[in-house]
What does this fold into?
Amino acid sequence: MKKNLLFAVVLFLSLVGVISCKNNKEDASGTVTARLQSYKTEFSLQVWGKGGAVNVLQYDEQQRLTSWNSDSIRWHYSYRTDGGVDVYGEFLRDGRKQFTGTITRNEAGLSEVEDYSVLISRLPVEPPIPEMMTYTYDEKNRLIHAADKAEAGAHSYTINVTFLYEADDDNVTRIKYEREVGGKTDFRYYGLEYFDKANPVGFYPELLMTTPMNGGYQVAGLAGYSRNKLLKRMNLYNKENVMTGMTDFDYQYDVDGNITECILTYRMLNDEGSMASNDFIRFYDLKY
It folds into this structure.
């Protein structure tokens, strides 16, 4: 059976962190009373083997994320008085890929444009690769479209991601993904299923699985992404609308209802139906 290599790669990328800073607990005055401070990951994937990491987040006095560090990634955010954000990131396991850039935000504080200069130290690329991400929101400030474009000669690419919501609530039902590189297009979409249970914190482990963009995308650019319920399953479909895989989500909680652990288990499908897989990612020891 042919392995779904791309999906496994995206799963691996998600290990560097997938915690959004939206929907943290607030008191009656709207003041944030809880922020995720740290979490750990453990994974076992056919393509990448076994491993894990410790992730630590820091905030300023306004409870804005200023750094997000793990064994494989570092992100730093500096907030300017004009409302923009200066960003610096390093992917330590990706050929020393470095990002420097700025984020332009709208009046609601949501990212509209992320403009980066990317330097891959192991490649003789000069000057650094320009990359731009743009975001579109609906009248409820929900993210409905994201685009990522990088100019790198033969390695240039464009990614377009569309988010579809239920008409009567804020839960994303489908995420459509299209990537063009080297004249070839990769198209797929994800169907999301939910538990009949509220999402207690802003914990979105599906983001890098569905949108393989850099860390600034899900941390700073996806403030408009949200869902009210806990994600139960995410089904993967190809361009012929045939389901090719699924990821199940299982959770553990503390006495206050906060998520302390989340396990993602992936299964591929073939003509005979579901096939068992030992691939999993575990997010655990979440501290607030």
Summary: The mean pLDDT is 78. The CA atoms of residues 233 and 248 lie 5 Å apart. DSSP finds three helices and 17 strands in the chain. The first strand starts at residue 38 and ends at 45.
